Backbone:
């Protein structure tokens, strides 16, 4: 496997305290599934901060940022049965990676973490 993209992002959790009170913000940035999953957690600030950082780190790993028709809601983060976060890969993401990285087969790796004040996410795109 060959690494074709790496991205990292850090978020000040305090910024999200007021942002997540705004439903327009939540609905513009997060998918319906992410919003649904947020209802299962007590710490909504860190929940949304980590996912925001993950979306930013993905855009950085892609190397384009949020351009060329890539939107925050296109990037969806969910958790497996053990709680490990991962990206849901939809057709739009497949096409964007294929176009920008010139690869058809890839894997995405995501690590997210948080502390009281900060959330961080790290993304790797690997060619298979």
Residues:
């Amino acid at each position: 496997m060959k690494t074709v993209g790496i991205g990292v992002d850090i978020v000040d959790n305090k910024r999200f305290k007021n942002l997540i009170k705004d439903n327009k913000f939540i609905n513009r940035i997060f998918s319906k599934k992410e919003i649904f999953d947020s209802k299962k957690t007590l710490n909504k600030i860190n929940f949304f901060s980590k996912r925001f950082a993950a979306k930013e780190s993905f855009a950085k790993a892609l190397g384009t940022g949020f351009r060329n028709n890539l939107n925050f809601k296109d990037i969806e983060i969910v958790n497996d049965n053990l709680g490990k976060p991962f990206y849901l890969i939809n057709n739009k993401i497949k096409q964007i990676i294929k176009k920008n990285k010139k690869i058809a087969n890839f894997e995405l790796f995501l690590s997210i973490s948080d502390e009281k004040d900060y959330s961080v996410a790290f993304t790797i795109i690997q060619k298979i």
